[in-house]
């Protein structure tokens, strides 16, 4: 018997039982009456019992129909429980791994994360920092769900979704910036470039920009955080190439100044994910909220 029963037959049966009429059940379900009649007839044939007594006005259940009602209601409840359980799998809960640059965390995600985690208290965010190459590698190897990188890696196995267009600048203390503007890069007088190290894409872009001007690339002093770089730049210990937003407050206060360059440099930071990866619910929530936040 079980292989001949369909869930929609029970739904139709209960509609007829509750409405007391084939025509009213059809209206409730959005069917034509002939569909309801056919489904009840098929259910009766499968059970080998008449389920409804047809009256001049409507129908009433037979003894077999009353027995069927109990099982039909259990079936409906089971379907509701299954639907509820499956829908819970779509609720954003669990762990999501996001890998991005430390400077992006400080300047951009600090305003986003409190609201996101407040809205999704059951999401456990594992935030890791790195540079372009290892972020791309971690996402490609499924070690991170989502990455945020300063440039489209241009890989066939990854998708890149632009988030924010960052203006990049050379920054120095106000006094050192004036000296460089007046005397050229020789005004550094041995002071280093202050940055995140050789693995950082910013270093390569800065070197190319200086090379276009025929300026020497200064030795680099490496620091692990945006905050340290800001402090060292403001104290006059060197020059840094970084997103303008990272030193916007210091520029506004006059402690740091932008060094004029022949052309503007912008880097488009964006989300990367594997094309063949089906993101889980927390990862989808994070991706969607990031896209909306930076839109």
From TrEMBL:
A Pfam family of the record is: HTH_1
Q: Which UniProt keywords apply?
A: DNA-binding, Transcription, Transcription regulation
Domain HTH lysR-type: start-end pairs: 10-62
InterPro entries in UniProt:
LysR_HTH_N, LysR_subst-bd, WH-like_DNA-bd_sf, WH_DNA-bd_sf
Keyword DNA-binding on entry: yes
Protein's UniProt keywords contain tRNA processing: no
Transmembrane annotation, as ranges:
none
Q: List the molecular function annotations (GO) for this entry.
A: DNA-binding transcription factor activity; transcription cis-regulatory region binding
What does the similarity note say?
Belongs to the LysR transcriptional regulatory family.
Name the chain's protein. Answer: LysR family transcriptional regulator
The organism of origin for this protein = Cohnella candidum
Q: What lineage, starting at the top, does this entry show?
A: Bacteria, Bacillati, Bacillota, Bacilli, Bacillales
């Amino acid at each position: 018997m079980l292989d001949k029963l369909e869930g929609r037959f029970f739904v139709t049966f209960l509609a007829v039982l509750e409405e007391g009429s084939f025509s009213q059940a059809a209206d409730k379900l959005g069917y034509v009456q002939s569909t309801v009649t056919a489904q009840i007839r098929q259910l009766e044939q499968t059970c080998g019992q008449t389920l409804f007594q047809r009256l001049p006005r409507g129908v009433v259940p037979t003894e077999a129909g009353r027995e069927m009602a109990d099982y039909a209601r259990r079936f409906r409840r089971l379907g509701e429980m299954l639907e509820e359980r499956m829908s819970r799998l779509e609720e954003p809960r669990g762990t999501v791994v996001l890998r991005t640059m430390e400077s992006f965390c400080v300047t951009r995600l600090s305003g986003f994360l409190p609201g996101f985690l407040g809205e999704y208290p059951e999401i456990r965010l594992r935030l890791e920092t790195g540079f372009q190459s290892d972020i791309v590698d971690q996402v490609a190897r499924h070690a991170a769900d989502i990455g945020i990188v300063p440039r489209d890696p241009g890989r066939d196995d990854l998708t890149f979704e632009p988030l924010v267009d960052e203006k990049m600048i050379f920054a120095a203390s106000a006094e050192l910036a004036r000296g460089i503007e007046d005397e050229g890069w020789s005004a550094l007088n041995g002071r280093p470039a202050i940055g995140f190290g050789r693995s950082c894409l910013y270093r390569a872009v800065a070197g190319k920009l200086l090379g276009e001007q025929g300026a020497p690339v200064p030795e680099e002093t490496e620091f692990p955080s945006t905050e340290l770089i800001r402090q060292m730049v403001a104290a006059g210990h060197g020059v840094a190439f970084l997103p303008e937003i990272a030193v916007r407050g210091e520029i506004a206060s006059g402690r740091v100044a932008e060094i004029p360059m022949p052309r503007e440099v912008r880097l488009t930071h964006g989300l990367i994910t594997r094309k063949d990866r089906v993101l889980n619910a927390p990862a989808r929530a994070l991706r969607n909220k990031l896209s909306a936040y930076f839109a």
